[in-house]
Amino acid sequence: MMIRNSSKVWSAGLLFVMSVPVWAGLPSSLGQKLADFTLEDYRGKKVSLHDERPKATVLLILGTECPLVGAYAVRINKLVADWDKAGVRVIGINANQQDSLAEIAQHAAKLGFRFPILKDAGNLIADKLGAERTPEVFVLDESGTVVYRGRIDDQFGIGYQRPAPTREDLVRAVDDVLAGKAVEVASTPVMGCRIGRVHRPDPAGKITYAKEVSRILQKRCVECHHEGDVAPFSLTNYDEVIGWAEMIKEVVADRRMPPWLAGPEHHDFVNNPSLDEDEKKTLFAWIDSGCPKGDEKDLPEPIALAKGWCMSKPDDVFYMSDKPYTVPAEGTVRYQYYVVDPGFKEDHWIKEAEVRAGTPSVVHHVIVFIQNGGADRAVAPQMAYAPGMPPRKLPPGRAIKLPAGSKLIFQVHYTPNGVEREDRSYVGFKYADPSEVTHEVVGAQAGVMLFAIPPNDGNFKMVAEERMRRDTWLIGMNPHMHVRGKDFRYEVIYPDGKREVLLDVPRYDFNWQLWYNYATPKLLPKGTRMICTAHFDNSDQNPSNPDPNKTVRWGEQTWDEMMFGFFSVERPLAKESAAADAQTKNGN
């Protein structure tokens, strides 16, 4: 479940498990001799576990739509090639009820998997193994005994990525087996997507997909979770939804989905996508009762889903470059910058703007800056594609000025996902009639650029301040840090000394670059002080931390840091101010 324009599916930290599914408590297979089984692969070929008796067998539990499976694809293929020479057998097992044989075949071809992938219909083998997530691995010795279960390594998690693994758990386990030794670490925690097990609907269940749940998903989720959009799986039909039911419950219960990082006390933002308590209770009760489908006659009418643009048809479209950028299958890509000259000889006023990723699966964010004609630096960003960020649609009379002679600067952050891709991102503008523009919308910021976060400091504090030099109407806020960011707070101190918290983000997540927008602009009188306070975790307790032993300074790369409290304000144009002054003098 997610909102418009997101390139990640879940935020960091999948260890929290709210739900207790009917198969919970299955005995672990660790230390047990696995009985022989026979399953068919996606080509219809029957494969038995005991067809061969190699020194080691690796069972990979996979899913076609889990982002972590894609992230590990290059690693898996390299390991399979290395192990083939050493006589290690690799078997993939797909137990997701929502993954068809055709989808498994397409997924294998896309990721270059050359080992057999078996369809575990009814998740019988997954149950015997006690498998819970994808990707999850099981290593068997020559006797067929499970001697290791857990993760591949610790490089990738849901919402974070280390530059390299600190421990290659699967490789070590296989090496121990081949050496005839006991596996040193036999079990490790697994992060990933829950297996889409078969559900057994309760005949007495009163809440159904057709009548209640489909409507909740339409309202909160399917804008991005539909075929061809940025989410990795669809939530538009019953068969897909039930395969993700337990995963949905987990991420909703932990407030990771829909993505919204503001503290629960904040209810005054117009773009809050969170489920209300009644919606949560309905959704959880349906899942707990085995996901009854109900009568298809009760289904709502399908909603019109976005194709192409989510804004009005743009007046202009500008691409980041003439040629696409090739994103490698793995590794870290430095931010890419592109300068585009629109060639404008007169001012333009933007009332709608939508930045789109050419290839959303590998684009973390795109920020488009306006560099005013003759200026050395770009102004604060107001247009972006980023996880959780919708297109910019301004109210009547409001617009962003694009001065004559200005240039557009595209900043693009790529995240390789296991397959080489090409990207050519772009932005579309819808212009306002200049005569109808009453307020200019501008970007502002409070930030710190000179800092040094000490090594192994788990709670480093930064404070930035910006004073309002005139009466200012605040319309939105966007906190920005990198992967060591921990929490962020916006406060104001009014001229009369009153202090107010505008926004508190207690669990910052770099993967969700969210704006928090007011329905009605908030007046910050002249002299009001905007104070932004942030904390950073540069310790080894932060799984996203590239290097806790490094002193961290300002920089544009993810492994550097930033501290900016971006905010957006509107200001009446001079002609409106003049008209207001004239009315005042006339006694109106």
3D structure, described in words:
- By secondary structure, this protein is α+β, with helices and mostly antiparallel strands.
- The protein folds into four domains: 38-194, Glutaredoxin; 209-298, no CATH class; 310-437, Sandwich (Jelly Rolls); 445-588, Jelly Rolls (Sandwich).
- The protein is built from ten helices and 30 strands.
- Strands 12, 15, 18, 19, 22, 23, 25, 28 and 30 form a nine-stranded mixed β-sheet that branches. It has a five-stranded mixed β-sheet with strand order 5-4-3-7-8. The protein has a four-stranded antiparallel β-sheet with strand order 14-20-16-17, with no helix packed on it.
- The longest helix has 14 residues, at 73-86.
- The radius of gyration is 26 Å and the shape is globular.
- The two termini are 51 Å apart.
In short:
The protein has 10 helices and 30 strands. With 588 residues, the chain is α+β, with helices and mostly antiparallel strands.
Number of helices in the DSSP assignment: 10
Helix content: 10-25%
What structural category arises from helix and sheet content?
A: alpha+beta
Number of strands: 30
Defining key terms:
single chain, 588 residues, alpha+beta, Glutaredoxin, Jelly Rolls, 4 domains, 9-stranded mixed beta sheet, 5-stranded mixed beta sheet, globular, disordered N terminus
